[in-house]
Design a protein that fits this description.
heterodimer; A: mainly beta; 7-stranded antiparallel β-sheet; 8 strands; B: mainly beta; two-stranded antiparallel sheet
């Protein structure tokens, strides 16, 4: 048995075509709502976790330009921007390799944050929310 | 007597929930009810605390994966319990939080969220957020000898 700790530089994020940038960070929360179901005479709190879970998150980096297909807003501001697209978040970015660690799901984009500061960076952040009738595909390199 | 310091701590998120953890926190709570009635002579609130105890908290650290040796079992390294590529964390697990090797609190819990962050110039992090799911009191083991 042997394991290694994931580090940020091993990561990667793949967004649908039209959500473009030089990305260097992502984050997400996988959540389930829970309900307390304790009854009289219990001294500890019992709960049930929902079968329905949610994923929200963001991916950020820097905008690109001066080349084709570099527009980060082309899909979001268009009529097809309301459609869900595939999001793949990698802890270990060896796609389809046995060593891949990733989470893949369809998502809609709730916002795109873009900014430029004269004494700093031009930044870009895509914020996404799970929109998938099927369960996400969770892949982890364990063996 | 020894004072506990953070480096003496540890945490186990239970079978199928794995990470290299380096921090945890928990709140043990009871709801309280004000039972002060009109005409209270003391001029201060009187309360009862519920007999029902709750524990919520989180634990954080770094995800781990196989180092290429190829000898780990399925479910032994991934941060979220799963079968194949499907997540099946809904049932939660037994959590044990240590302040030292000989002092801990243990209870069953469900997870209400898992938070991940990956930055190219930094760390890959994971946070487990849990809530007690046990009809009996947590098991507290404390080294007092």
């Amino acid at each position: 048995m042997g394991s290694t700790v994931a580090i940020g530089s091993d990561g990667k994020v793949v967004l649908p075509t039209g959500y473009v940038g030089t990305l260097n960070t992502w984050s997400c929360s996988i959540t389930r709502s829970t309900t307390a179901v304790s009854g009289f005479s219990q001294v500890g709190t019992t709960r049930v976790a929902s079968s329905l879970f949610d994923i929200t998150g963001s991916a950020g980096g820097f905008p690109n330009y001066d080349a084709s297909t570099t527009d980060p807003l082309s899909l979001f501001v268009g009529t097809s921007g309301a459609n869900a697209g595939s999001v793949s978040l990698f802890w270990n970015s060896i796609a389809s390799n046995v060593a891949e660690c990733s989470l893949e799901f369809d998502a809609v984009f709730s916002s795109v944050a873009i900014g430029a500061t004269q004494d700093g960076d031009a930044s870009l952040s895509f914020n996404f929310e799970l929109a998938d009738a099927n369960a996400p595909v969770f892949t982890w390199f364990e063996a | 007597m020894a004072v506990a310091v953070g480096s003496d701590g540890n945490a186990s998120m239970g079978t199928g929930f794995n990470a290299a953890l380096n921090t945890w926190s928990a709140n043990l709570t009871r709801s309280t009810q004000v039972i002060t009635a009109f005409g209270a002579a003391s001029g201060c609130h009187n309360r009862r605390a519920s007999s029902l105890l709750d524990v919520t908290g989180s634990a954080g650290g770094f995800p781990v994966y196989d180092n290429g040796s190829g000898t780990d079992a399925d479910g032994s390294l991934a941060p979220i319990k799963h079968t194949g590529t499907a997540l099946n964390d809904r049932g939660g697990s037994t959590i044990q939080l240590f302040t030292s090797a000989t002092s801990s609190i243990q209870f069953a819990a469900v997870f209400n969220s898992f938070s991940f962050g990956v930055s190219q110039d930094g760390a890959s992090t994971v946070t487990f957020n849990f809530e007690m799911n046990q009809s009996t009191a947590p098991t507290v083991s404390w080294d007092e000898s």
